[in-house]
Amino acid sequence: MAVPRRSKPTLLLLLLLSLFASSSLAIATGNGGGYSINGRVKIPGFGAKGFGLPVKANNAKVILNGGQQVTFLKPDGYFSFHNVPAGTHLIEVVVIGYFFSPVRVDVSARNPGKIQAALTETRRGLNELVLEPLKEQQYYEIREPFNIMSIVKSPMGLMIGFMVVVVFLMPKLVENMDPEEIRKAQEEMRNQGVPSLANLMPGAGAGGGRSN
Amino acid sequence: MAMAIKLSLILLLCLSSLLAPSFSLFEDQVGLMDWHQRYIGKVKHAVFHTQKAGRKRVLVSTEENVIASLDLRRGEIFWRHVLGPNDVVDKIDIALGKYVITLSSEGSILRAWNLPDGQMVWESFLSGSKYSKALLTVPSNLKVDLDSPIFVYSGGCLHAISSIDGEYLWKKDFAIESSVDVHQLILSGGSDVVHAVGVTDSSQFDTYEIDVKNGGLLKHTSASFPGGVYGEILPVSGDRFVVLDASRSVVLLITVNNGATHLQQTHVSDLIHGSSENTVILPSKLSGIFSLRTDSCIVFVKVTDEGKLNVMEKVDKTVVVSDALALSEGEQAFALVQQGDSKIELSVRLVHDMSSNHLKETVKMDHERGFVHKIFINNYVRTDRSHGFRALIVMEDHSLLLLQQGEIVWTRDDGLASVIDVTTSELPVEKIGVSVAKVEHSLFEWLKGHMLKLKGTLMLATPDEVAAIQQIRLQSSQKNKMTRDHNGFRKLLILLTRAGKLYALHTGNGRVVWSTLLQSLRTTSQQQCAGLKLRQWQVPHHHALDNNPSVLVVGRCGLSLTSPSALSIVDAYTGKELQNLGPAEHSTVQVITLPFRDSTEQQLHLLIDADKRAHLYPTTPEAASIFQRESENVYWYSVESEAGILRGYGVKKTHSSEYSFEARNLWSIVFPAESEKIIATVTRKPNEVVHTQAKVIADEDVMYKYISKNMVFVATVSPKASGPIGSATPDESVLVVYLIDTVTGRILHRMTHLGSQGPVHAVLSENWVVYHYFNLRAHRYEMSVIEIYDQSRAENKDVLKLIVGKHNLTTPVSSYSRPEVTTKSQSYFFTHSVKAISVSSTAKGITSKHLLIGTIGDQVLALDKRFVDPRRSLNPTQAEKEEGLLPLTDALPIIPQSYVTHAFKVEGLRGIETIPAKLESTSLVFAYGVDLFYTRIAPSKTYDSLTEDFNYALLLLTIVALVIAIFVTWVLSERKDLQDKWR
Asked: What is the pTM of this model?
């Protein structure tokens, strides 16, 4: 158990702790029929800063077998369950904002002091019971920062864009055309009895004209 | 031309915007349609921390296994921890002025928490040899640096634990030498001796003096009294103790002097003239005084130096007495609370001067809070150096109040931490001409509100009034109105709590609209009452629109199943108890809501008692005649988990009285006791709506769902595997699930999961059931789905038959017919343990469903039903992909954004209730535990309404821009026309 870059009192305390918990982190001791499971929860990004867990981890819980026992983390992330019978157990860590894999823990009755642990999600075995989150969890959608493109891309923006095109570019197109051809085309349209929607245009125009 | 293109483009855009994915929740949307309330439960112990300057707080432990630090000024929670369900808090105290010490799990776990932020500092496990009462003694008057041990008596041993790091110092096992049961630990200040006082075989009184340093036994004295003792030994002064004898009629005064123990007997009847039944000594720990409570009164008895007992005062037995509070000059004070009608009288007395009240205050109290159950007092020094007192009181409805200077400083409705059952009620319809005031305000208040608003607009209002106007605006803002809304989002959530109080919460912001302490469910000295079920009683629809809706509360008075039941009907708008039918002469084990209503829209209910007799409510001749007509179609079933039997019942023709009916056993299924034990049964929600029976699958094929309201899902495990995980090996645990028709007892489907065990959580809806269990072989949780289809209708595919009319599509779904059914099933891994599963429900059942999974982390996860579709395959065909079938994965995905509780936790989650809104796309979700959480979800997105964050400004802007553009183009074309004509 290496303890790099820690202040002296912390180191002492940790040494004391490690003495208390013997050499391995996960140790089972016969104790009135039950065993103890000791482990540690590590949340990356905070361990480096020193002693203490983030405020977020303040409400961290470690749960044995879906609620049979619930325990909390010490400031250095250690936790322990006592009076656990021999068998295969499941440990879950609950910290808001992090996703932890449940851990399968085998407490051996024949061989006290031996505990086998494996993450159930990834089926990865653990040498010592140090639990780290698989990933951080973000509960909210991240709102896109304001940019002009999102407005342009929205239905409204597209409509405005289309309008601009129609208003400013269409007359230009019409101007470039031969007036004769336009007249011809218009006459053709009138003769052919254009779709009803197209009829609306001169109608609207006439109405407007009257009000003038 | 351009217009035509434009129109088609608009249509296209509208369509595309519908198809675009709408996301779950942005951080700034929190609180728009959800609310979260944090509670702690009924307070058991309270310790004040007010010595130092800075934030004053009170530390409490509750019956919901919560320890919390509350702000003494406003009652808010600084920090809170919810311990495990078996981790009951025994004692709480403060050590070194900076740690909160809790003793829990029958004295086997000692924890220290950092006082400011609630971080756990250390934890010690104390192992004992036998069960005993847990005692905790924390030395109080010491310097912070000095490490003085904490003494814990539990499991028959005395433990000394360092208060700084929780290290084990020594242990003294009393159980080795004798079977002494220690009642008190006394640590006299400054000395190196801890005194343990106890009783051996309830006939010998023992005192031990133990060295604080090493746990060595210094002195042991004992004296026997053949009468035996009742209850606990209580210290009166340093060397005097009192205890009751086994007959509860004699007070024993024990004096320990120079190693000799002297006993002195006094009859209770000599102290209290008159009846002295059920005498107990109250554990008040006053110096030189003890208090006795009998059926008639409470007496305070002073023990003089000569060992004489003098009765000082006699008060009413309803008075609640606080523990002693040590004041600065070695003086002690305690508080008494006397209950009056809609007020309480708080008086504080000093031990040295019992004759007069040091302080007497009368506080007005809402009588809906019931009696005072507990009181804790604390003092503060006023500016004139005299003592002021504040009192924390716990009421019958589990609420917590702080009294100071004759006023209620704050209240907490902590009864809401123990919700038993939930139902909803529609709000009143907003009528034209009739103001909203009909429900929420009296006319005067309504007028006053409008006057205030008028003042506000005329700039005449004072700051206080401005605040009041803001309050009114908040109240009348769209989501908090007290009337029915078009979308059906505004409703009343009616909650029944363990204290027997009924609350109505508005779904808009979660405020309490009314609350009623039900008289029929109040626990009295004779009997203990508790609520069981809450049902909708009257839902006015067509005929009785003028009536308010009402709810039926069914409770039980007594602890056994055969205890008489209490019924009451409560108005859902006002909370008034309309009818109190209790205590009824029969018991209640099952409440069945029948699908029949009488002419006043009252729902018919059947209450099944312990003798399998059915009682009909309401007890009106009309209801009886409706029931007589339909009685042949009334069936129910009962689950006897212990015996492993499922029984189906119908109503016998012969009835014992007009409203009670004998049941006839129709069928029973007996599970073999040696291999199967029932651990879960789940049925469909009775009010669930199914849109269509047909399910169109790929290749335009049709499958017919087997939709029966009479289906029950039963899960059994092998008896060995009924314990927690880790207690059984995979080979000896088998999980068997059944789908059973409850009318005929026909087993529709049976499935075995080898190597699996409980706990099983399941939800049954439409034609499918989803259940969660533990797979021991993979050592992971699994979720399985079973879908059941009606095979007899599968031949209706032939078009020719349909035309000719040879189809059976119009035959009703009935349990009497025995159609061929087929099932499809699939299993997936699921990461977390589960506390509750529910499913979203919508008004018409068209919208797709979401499973709502309450995880072990007290969060609620919404999982699309498409993920648990048994037709998923590894490589779906093109047609299946188009249908929306997802490729098969071994585990169900957990997408953080689909947690409906987002960053909140519903601590101690117990249930999830879903209520359909009027808007088809939306379902209302209410999750309850120690906390309450409400939100609304749209499983298929809000396809029938605009989202909350719809940008109306942009829409308006676009319309304006379009209108301007039309005019511009029109002017331009006009001008062009003119030019053309001039040419």
From this structure: 0.84
Helix, strand, or coil here: B822?
strand
Which of A94, A155, A160 lies closest to B961 in CB terms?
A160
A77 and A175 co-located in one domain: no
Reading phi first (left if > 0) and then psi (alpha if -120 to 50, else beta), residue B392 is in beta
pLDDT for the residue numbered B287: 78
Structure-block tokens of residue B490:
């505004």
Is B32 within 8 Å of chain A by CB?
A: no
Instruction: Give tens-digit pLDDT for B661-708.
Output: 888 899 999 999 888 999 999 999 888 888 888 888 777 778 888 888
Question: Is residue A174 included in any domain, yes or no?
Answer: yes
Identify whether A3 is part of a domain. Answer: no
The Cα B332–Cα B286 span in angstroms is 7
CB neighbour class for B228 (10 Å; exposed up to 12, middle 13-18, buried from 19): middle
Phi, psi (rounded to 5 degrees) for A211: -65, -25
Across the interface, of B3, B9, B897, the residue whose CB is closest to A139 is B897
Please give the tally of structural domains in chain A.
2
Structure tokens at B376: 């804790």
For B489, phi and psi rounded to 5 degrees?
-85, -30
Q: Would the CB atoms of B905 and A87 count as touching at under 8 Å?
A: no
Instruction: Please say which residue of A100, A116, A136 terminates a domain.
Output: A136
Q: What is the mean pLDDT of chain B?
A: 82
Which value does ipTM take for this structure? 0.81
- Give the sign of the dihedral formed by CA B786, CA B791, CA B797, CA B802: negative
CB contact under 8 A, B857 and A96: yes
- How many angstroms away from the CA of A75 is the closest CA of chain B? 6
- The top-scoring range by mean pLDDT among A56-70, B359-373, B847-861, B871-885 is B847-861
Which of B693-697's residues contact partners 24+ apart within 8 Å by CB, and which partners? B693/B790, B693/B793, B693/B813, B697/B871, B697/B883
- B835 pLDDT tier (thresholds 50, 70, 90): very high
Question: What distance in Å separates residue B23's CA from the closest CA in chain A?
Answer: 7
pLDDT digits (tens, 9 = 90+) for B210-238: 888 888 888 888 888 777 788 888 888 77
The answer to whether the beta carbons of residues B706 and B690 sit under 8 Å apart is no
- Do residue A165 and residue A124 come from a single domain? no
- How many residue pairs bridge chain A and chain B with CB atoms within 8 Å of each other? 195
CA of B976: which chain A residue's CA is closest?
A171
The structure tokens listed for B571 are 């108005």
Nearest to B831 among A32, A102, A209 (CB): A102
Tell me if residue B18 falls in helix, strand or coil. Answer: helix
How distant is the alpha carbon of residue B318 from its chain centre?
29
Regarding whether A126 and A46 lie in a shared domain, the answer is yes
pLDDT at B453: 65
Mutation for B interface: A37, A105, A159, most B CBs within 10 A: A159
Are A65 and A111 members of one domain? yes
**All domains in chain B, ordered by first residue:** 83-224 (2.40.128.630), 236-315 (no CATH), 430-480 (no CATH)
Q: Are B487 and B918 in contact (CB under 8 A)?
A: yes
